[in-house]
Amino acid sequence: MAKLTLKNLSKSYGDITAVRNLSLDIRDREFFVLLGPTGAGKTTTLRCIVGLERPESGEVWIGENLVNEWSAANRDVALVFQQYSLYPNYTVRKNLEFPLRSKLRQIPAKEIGPRVQKAAETLRISHLLDRRTDRLSGGEMQRVAIGRAIVREPRLFLMDEPLSNVDAKLRELLRAELRQLQLKLGTTLVFVTHDQVEAMTMGDRVGVLYDGELVQIGTPYEIYNFPRNTFVASFVGSPAINLFDAGIDGNKLVVVPEKFEIALQPAVRERLHKVAGQRNAVRIGVRPEHVKLDMSGDITGRLYGAEDHGVEMILTITIADHLIRATSSATTRIPVNAPIQIAFAQDKLHFFDTETGANLAQI
Amino acid sequence: MADLDLIDIEKHFGTNWVIRKLNLRINHGEFVVLLGPSGCGKTTTLRAIAGLEAIDSGEIRIDGKSVESLPASERDIAFVFQLYSLYPHMTAFENIAFPLRALRMSEKEVREKVNGVARVLRIEHLLQKKPSALAGGDMQRVTIGRALVRRPKAILMDEPIGALDAKLREEMRVELRRLHIENKSTTVYVTHDQVEAMSMADRIAIMNEGILQQVGSPTEVYSWPANLFVAQFVGSPIMNVSNCRVEAADSISKVRLDGMESPFHFGGEAHQRIAAAGHDEIALGVRPEAVLVKRTEQPGYVRGEVHLIEPLGACDILDIGIGKAVIRARTESRFVTRLHESVWVQLDEARTHFFDKRSGLALDRKR
């Protein structure tokens, strides 16, 4: 197993810059997630690590080796794709043996059987070894694809959206299974996804990519609770964070363009003034779980819609033409269009720059 | 707006049953979601209502009248597909106005109706744009506007927001629900996404392998699932389901999951449900939020070990090993921060389900 270091990596296709000056240290045995929307540069980054793509500039280090000039085969990393790319006419066993029989690796024949057996046991597919892969379910196929990466015992695992082709229930199970597996094997794993739930639930750390640039690196807790900017804040978390602009007016914030006021508690006012500097306006971010139904709350709205999610309700509330999302207990029953009093958990308010979206607490 | 009645609907392709003995009444003004995995028969059912698919037996009634002999065009039903089917050379306004023009409505009336629908859908500012200039969510809004504008007897939607990204889907769910509240159109909505079903439906009809499993409000199907399929199809994270061994005594049932030393104790109503089953071929089901977790030993709680922590931001999901079983629990964020820590677990009796292992049916319970 190995650590992975990217130094000032850049890659463009024609006029389009896919990855811009990206630097990253991934620790030995870490589960690292690259998270971002389509076109953010995650897959390009991954392909540069594997050696399927040559960066224009920058360095890729695997362990203590600078591997820029190494072929993909020599880098000793295993890549698992979204498509399982198994040989359909072969049995599971043959699919697992295949990478070990490569001339490049020169693995003694007597080692192959035990290694396949061990990988199959780890993934709980021993009973499927003699079945053809086209007779497997989606989840089983994905396990075999992962198995084919495991048998090689590579220095590094890379996975490109490996769970996005399986249905929601199975994805939930495979998520936990994959994370358990990584802990058990003690491997370094780089996992690419556009799904923030996968990133949050599996990663030791998450790197959020946007438009070819690494916006933030942190633990799931840090990314969720201390987002670097409005992009990270709204990309991570479901239901999404509420964002709205407000003018700073002494002890209160005046939300615009349709106005409503938030009277600030002293401690929060102090915090705001510290981070806002000379600004007379900020973008406020507040997560739905920090919008509280509160009979004595000083903000009045109307219930626009209520979604029953079983475990909780998600309420959409209109306040002076702003739509604000709140979560509340599963037993909440309020008729649509009814007036509603709310209060924000003010210690949880985020303040961002209205132009750049940067989190003012982190500039 | 109209009532829809589906009576003993059956349909098969060759030897494969697609729909079996389906009975469902959709009331005037109701939003009903047909929910199930792919191949469960939900889309075929929807297409049969629209008249796009013939059924083998049974009857479909709209406002009490059988529509068997009516072609799709005469059923006065609007259909919205996953893919927007807008006329590319027409503006959004003209696309929405299209069905009205076919009715030879006056220009003034057309404008009023189109503007009315556009206001509800929040697309007034987009009316002069052509589809190619619209984002996916806006295109779907226009498609829905076109379906609604002529006030059909019912509106049928087949995964209408399935192709949109996650954030937009979140917004569209609220908008569609809001639209329904304002228009009160009888709506039948097909999806495989349980979140959409839970968040929009008045009632959810859950199908699997052509068979209707349960019909009920979101709260009903979530809190009182009729069988194991419904229990695990609705809700995320998935309901924990474990085989268990049961020892029923006079006033208490001892329930052990696989490999568990000290059992969970159930008294009262849960005990009666277990005892009434009269056998021990029972599976236990409990949603992650009904698993109570403590950091210290407590009477009545059973020790477990944290195998995995999945942070979701607002809360964490813990995988807790108890015996050989793993139970997932929902806790506040950072309740446990280290793997392999010991925690103590109890199951909330009122929210613990028991199922007959052979039939998969929920053991009877009082609501």
SSE inventory with pairings:
The complex is a heterodimer of chains A (363) and B (367).
Chain A: E1 4-13, E2 16-26, E3 31-35, H1 42-50, E4 57-62, E5 65-66, E6 77-80, H2 92-97, H3 109-122, H4 138-150, E7 156-160, H5 168-185, E8 189-193, H6 196-202, E9 205-210, E10 213-218, H7 220-225, H8 230-235, E11 242-249, E12 252-255, E13 260-263, H9 266-276, E14 281-286, E15 291-293, E16 299-308, E17 312-319, E18 322-329, E19 339-344, E20 350-352
Parallel strand pairs in A: 3-8, 3-9, 6-7, 7-8
Antiparallel strand pairs in A: 1-2, 1-4, 4-5, 9-10, 11-12, 11-14, 12-13, 14-20, 15-19, 16-17, 16-19, 17-18
Chain B: E1 4-13, E2 16-26, E3 31-35, H1 42-50, E4 57-62, E5 65-66, E6 77-80, H2 92-102, H3 107-121, H4 136-148, E7 154-158, H5 166-183, E8 186-191, H6 194-200, E9 203-208, E10 211-216, H7 218-223, H8 228-233, E11 240-248, E12 253-257, E13 264-266, H9 268-277, E14 282-286, E15 291-294, E16 302-311, E17 315-322, E18 325-332, E19 342-347, E20 352-356
Parallel strand pairs in B: 3-8, 3-9, 6-7, 7-8
Antiparallel strand pairs in B: 1-2, 1-4, 4-5, 9-10, 11-12, 11-14, 12-13, 14-20, 15-19, 16-17, 16-19, 17-18
Helix pairs in contact in B: 2-3, 2-4, 3-4
